[in-house]
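Intended use. Records like the one below are meant for learning the mapping from a protein sequence to its folded structure. Do not use them to infer anything beyond what is encoded.
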Amino acid sequence: MWQDSIAGGLKDAEVGDEVQVLAPDGSPVGRGLADPGSPIAVRLWTKGRKPIGEDVWKARSERACAMRRRLFDDHATDAYRVVHGEGDRMPGFVVDRYGPVAVARTDGDAAATRIDDFARAVWPELETLGVASLVHRAGAKGETPRIEVLRGRPPPDTIEVREHGVPFVVDLARGQKTGAFLDQRENRARVGELARGRRVLNLFSYAGGFSVHAARGGATHVTSVDVAAAAHATAQATFRAAGVDARAHAFVTADVRAFLDAARGRGDRWDLVISDPPSFAPNEKARPRALTAYRALHAACAKVLAPGGILCAASCSSHVDAEAFASTLDDEVLGERDLSLLELRGAGADHPTLAAFPEGRYLKFAVLA
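Structure written out for the chain above:
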């Protein structure tokens, strides 16, 4: 619940306290964890007057892990999200599995103060999945992550996992989020299906997830572009793990817009272009600027797309909904390219959302041809 929607009663609450939320008529709405200094002042966990007891933590951990066992029972994938905050009715908590290592992150101070309660509930279920380490990855954006071992043994800095049978390397110590962007897993697999016989350009390539799926899928050549040279080192390690000769492909350290301008000037063209930038809209105020930035980026992508090519464009900005994002891929933006929207995809089923929580459906992945 937003801070400005609460009339009073939080003055004496401490961060992480369990509080009862009442409607204006005094009827019980639910119970949640207080975060008085945050714009999201209370994250609701239960309805009515039901306490957030150990039974709630345990039942929701069991349900989340049981769902993942069903989703990944073929054992071809051992990197996926185990707990997805509100989508698993555990707001403020996220857990990603990377083989034998589970990495937790917390959203807000309230969740951080209750990390021990969370670990106690989720650890037995994680062990049934084959997890041997549970760590909490903390730190503000731009800071070196702090890794705190909650259960089990300390994890390695890097680990090799599998995604639909494709090996890839994850930098647990220095990678973004929990180490990788698992929400794009199914979209990476889709790119692998689309890449056969095509020259592929992967923009904002980070650790090369789309690139390795394209190469394994039969792309004739893959060019990966990212401003961070360190990300290319991880991508090349992934290529080696996946049995792909990284020397047969290109890894370019450059600003994406500068690269696209230069490529257009040279007349370079690709049959499949993937654009997966970082969030352009960190808040609602930034939304108009973000839409302008997406339009400019997509126009530049269209200019290096070969005739008959496929454009895959992604957005992870929760403040830009699917319809608004699709508007940045209209005919005015794409110019002479007569492209149609074939698919508008999101995250995989291991990233469930609540029907009344559209912000949870933040990921958009458009396929145009």
